[in-house]
Each structure stands twice: as structure tokens, then as C-alpha cells.
Amino acid sequence: MAPNFLILALTALIPLIVGFIWYNPKVLGTAWMKSAGLTEESMKGANMALVFGLTYLFSLFLSLAITTLVVHQTHLFSLLEGNPDVGVAGSAANQELMDLVTKYGANFRSYKHGALHGFIACLLIVLPVMGVNALFERKGFKYIAINVGFWAVCMMIMGAIICQHGVVYNQ
Predict the structure, then answer these.
(1) Are 164 and 109 contacting, i.e. CB atoms less than 8 angstroms apart?
(2) Angstrom distances, CA of residue 14 to CA of 55, 58, 134, 148
(3) How is 1-35 classified by DSSP, letter by letter?
(4) How much is the mean pLDDT over the chain?
(5) Closest Cα partner for 131 from 121, 139, 68?
(6) pTM for the whole thing?
(7) Which is it for the CA torsion 40, 43, 49, 55, positive or negative?
(8) Which helix (H) or strand (E) holds 58?
(9) How would you classify residue 106: left for phi > 0, otherwise alpha for psi between -120 and 50, otherwise beta?
(10) Considering only CA atoms, which of 67, 56, 57 is closest in space to residue 4?
(11) Which residues, in sequence order, are CB contacts of 140 under 8 Å at separation 6+?
(12) What confidence tens digit (pLDDT) does each residue in 127-139 have?
């Protein structure tokens, strides 16, 4: 089993694309800036190449993490991980793994399933982390809703694509 690195590289672009729309002043950008206590003037002067570059890098990390959440078959490999022969083609351990992949490799590999797990991950990971930060930063509900909503959309799209296309099985 190997991640499909092309799919991971492409899904890492999703937060940049969705963010371009989501945080546009004509969509939620003005409300977000107000809830975050930012002004147009305070937004000027940032190194945008660094901002976008790090956003892509962090989104790539997120794509890798989402893979383990939406593709349940990634956990099949941990069952035989301690066996040194699991990677040796034709060995008993390798054959056991390939039998599992053949039998269960396509289960729950759909856009809908990936989107569901992307939403669940956002609800159970992103919301608590951003919520705690927002509470200590004295930000309101609107700030939390705008940002968590953004990540819910991104993670649902990323999860959907990764679940359907994000892992390749080598037999």
C-alpha cells in the first residue's frame, strides 16, 4: 500500500482554493476580518509567498493525516507490521496481507464516506482546537463558526477525494 502522492499534492491545494472564495470580502471575508479584529490596513505588508507556501505545506500534512482517517484499509497493514516478511512478495505474511486487501480493500472507499469522515474529523479535532484558542483570544461565536466552517468544507472535500483515490495497493 502506498499513498497516491499526486492526489495528496492536489488535495493540499484545496484550502488555498476554498480560502480564496470563503475569505473573499464578498463572501465571508469582511465578517471574518471584523470578528478577528483585523482591518485592511493590518492585513498589508505580509510576506504572501511565505503565507501561501506554508499554507500549502501544512495542507500537505493535513492530506497525509486525513488519509489515515478516511481510508480504513491503511490500518490493515498495522496488523502484520511487526512481521519482517510482510514486505517480501510470496511470503506467508505478505499473502495474508494481500488476502485482506483483496477481500476488504474496496470497502468504504467512496466520496461520500470520505466526506463524512472529513466532517467528523473537523468536528472532533478542528472545532475543539480552534474553539479553545478562540476562547482564550476572546473571539466570539462568529469567528469560530467562520473558521471551523471553512475547515469543515476543506476537510470534507479533501476526505472525499482521498478516500476515493488516495491509496494505491501494490500486489
Answers:
(1) yes
(2) 10, 12, 24, 15
(3) -EE-HHHHHHHTTHHHHHHHHHTSTTTTHHHHHHH
(4) 92
(5) 139
(6) 0.89
(7) negative
(8) helix 48-70
(9) alpha
(10) 67
(11) 35, 134
(12) 999 999 999 999 9
Please report the sign of the dihedral spanned by the C-alpha atoms of residue 127, residue 131, residue 134, residue 139.
Answer: positive
**Per-residue pLDDT in tens (0 to 9) along the chain, 171 residues:** 677 899 999 999 999 999 999 999 999 999 999 999 999 999 898 999 999 999 999 999 999 999 999 998 887 777 777 888 888 888 988 888 888 888 888 888 999 999 999 999 999 999 999 999 999 999 999 999 999 999 999 999 999 999 999 876 654
CA distance to 59, 70, 162, per residue, from 65 (Å): 10, 9, 11
**Cα separation, 110 vs 108, whole angstroms:** 6
